UniProtKB/TrEMBL annotation:
The chain crosses the membrane at residues 12-30. Its EC number is 3.4.21.108. Keywords: Hydrolase, Membrane, Protease, Transmembrane, Transmembrane helix. SUPFAM superfamilies: PDZ domain-like, Trypsin-like serine proteases. One of its GO terms (molecular function) is serine-type endopeptidase activity. Residues 272-360 form the PDZ domain. This is Protease Do. Pfam families: PDZ_2, Trypsin_2. GO terms for biological process: proteolysis. InterPro entries: Chloro_Bact_Ser_Proteases, PDZ, PDZ_sf, Peptidase_S1_PA, Peptidase_S1C.
Amino acid sequence: MKADNQDVKFIVALCIVISLVGGILGGIVFSSSNNTGNNFFNAGTSKTENVQVSVTSGITEVVNKVSPAVVSITSEHLTRGFWGPYTSKSSGTGFVVTAEGLVITNKHVVEDANASYSVFTNDGTEYPAKVKAQDPLSDIAFLQMEKANDLKTIDLGDSDELQVGEPVIAIGNALGQYQNSVTTGIVSGVGRALPVGDSESGQVNSLDNVIQTDAAINPGNSGGPLVNIRGQVIGINTAIDQSGQNIGFAIPINSVKTALKSVQSTGKVIRPIIGISYISITKDLAKKNNLSVNEGALVYVSGNSPALKPGSPAEKAGIKENDIITKINDTKIDAKHSLSSTVREHSVGETIKITLIRDSKEMKVDVKLEELKQ
């Protein structure tokens, strides 16, 4: 038993020595690792690196590129009230398309013939301006800045290439006081139709084939550009649906290009017409009226306007009320290609071939386009 007790004491003593030695060595290793930066327990955290984070993104690059060509438009005119005359003011937005100061905006921004207009560039420079031309069929107008030169201009894109879900940026003079405000969103829909008035000169006076976006469009933004991620204008911000949220509309830039070309060559917007009133056919309309097709344009009486304007190109060609126009040349009339917008792609004096359905039979007629008299 005595021998056993000695063995036990020896083993205990040996354990204590081993523990002390292990602790000393561990302390040395730990200290060494701290000094050399190779700490096992904090691996990878001992190095210090300076990282620069840039806030520049695709959106900021587009804004920097486009903003110098976006302008604020103000108008003033003398109004007579109960207490006497006073000056009434309004505002909108536009964008510069020539270095000499030709500006595209909405017609409703500059519709007052008795008003005086001023254009403010992004750097605050003020230019007097005059209305150069207005589109008789759409909410498009052109202003000419006076004594302007070497101005920054904006690139025009291709609105026919737009895809639903594509990111877009709206820039404008929000609420008439926040110049060049920027909002972002996506293309929520294409080929929308917005009724904006009565039929005039045998044409339905509406905004058709417009772009829907959820980018915020506020009062004062009217006439401003809706641009894609490449910094190209693909639409003119025009209207909002006040019954909903984030539902804005823009006129496709491709429908503006023909007007711009006309203004630059003749000084006015010349639009061709065929001289009819119509309603765009949808699946619901076709079902309710037992129509033979789900797309196209139904020649139809609109309000006080007849289906065909007397003496119009359509009447001369033999088109009749209740005919369904399905094609112009090779372009199919559908949600993305309305009758009015397709006609506007052609020129006055040009003869187009119209495919139509009458009494369930397809036929084709030639129509020579005439100028819409303003």
